[in-house]
Amino acid sequence: MNKFSQICGEILATVGVLLLLFAFYEAYWTNIAAGRAQDEVSAEMQQRWQNPRSQKNLELGDAFANMYIPAFGSDFAFAVVEGANDEALLAGPGHYPETQMPGERGNFAVAGHRVGKGAPFNDLGNLNSCDAIVIETRDSWDVYRVLPMGTDPATRSQEGAGCLHPEQVGRVAEGDYAGVQGRIITTPGDVGVIDPLPNVVDVNIDELEPVITLTTCHPQFSNAERMIIHGMLTESLPKDGPRPAVMEA
């Protein structure tokens, strides 16, 4: 019996060491590789931005925008790449190709890792309604604000009034965006969250607000569920002017 217990103890110890090594690999080593990939795609994007003659059709893995979330500090900045597959997400947050582009009416949807591989979306759970998500493209600064977290019209109206335009507050409180919350936890198969109007079919895209959707795994170290953040465009500024005030605060 003692020998059996000893063998079991050795097996458990070995499993524990392997789990620690895997955690180290996921949380540290993949971050190094992702950082290198992020630097490469960001540098290539900056070269294209500075030389209009070098413009090319956007391909999977190409960076095309920068993402800033001021609530996470001035050092939060990631180049957004085209594509949401594993290879693309190693280089940074990835745009779902079937969704709209920044500033367009409809849904600009972006996926990102929460642990390891750069972990750009590790802190999404800390966002509050009206927090800014800023997208920098070659031509513009697009400022999205996280939508209300509440579900009843009065709460949504009160939360939205802090950052949305009056017409947007009406749509968010009791209109066609009344069911679009700032943060939800859902299943991996809930693809409706990246629809032009999240979880609504048969819409006229020309009548929609420009929104942003961020998706990541939930909880940490698990892919059992998905955390979703929804925001709405409140400001779009030309690149040849000043940066958005929210980035200077």
TrEMBL record:
Statement: the UniProt record of this protein carries the keyword Transmembrane helix: yes
InterPro entries the UniProt entry points to: Sortase, Sortase_Class_E, Sortase_dom-sf, Sortase_E
> What name does this protein carry?
Sortase family protein
Entry's Gene Ontology molecular function annotations = hydrolase activity
Active site, renumbered? H113, C217
User: Can you name the source organism?
Assistant: Corynebacterium pseudopelargi
Q: Which stretches are transmembrane? A: 7-25
Which UniProt keywords are listed? Hydrolase, Membrane, Transmembrane, Transmembrane helix
Pfam families per the record? Sortase (PF04203)
